[in-house]
Amino acid sequence: MRETVIQIISAFVGSLGFAIIYNVKKTNLVLGMLGGGLTWIIYLCASPYCANLFIVNVIAGAFGACYSEIMARIRKVPKTVFILPSIIPLVPGSGLYYSILYIFGNHRDLADTYGENTLLTVGGIAAGLVMVSVAFKYVSKFLKKRKKA
Fold it and tell me: Rounded to two decimals, what is the model's pTM?
């Protein structure tokens, strides 16, 4: 339980750090931080119920994208203002690091394992982002057509 709380706090703070690095305006910093923390909570909640790393990251990435799309419309800013901080906790930095480390250390089996997990994570995040982005685009077009009629 303690480890989970530390992970969630780290996700919030890490998202805030990246929001600052990407020059998110002060009025949106807390919302960007909230997106990252909530996305990590979704990841942690989905992990025990699904052993497939790809699917867990699709779920968390889709949540982060939904949050970003909704907040962008509410705050009237580009969605990237919220997408970047929201998905930062999911990015597999350590997986990429260990993949490269084991490649150069001639530990082929470990490099393959970490590399596969890294690719599954990145692919899952991308799939979640794309699915939500396409869905919002079509819903938005539909609502615009309906409004004109």
Answer: 0.89
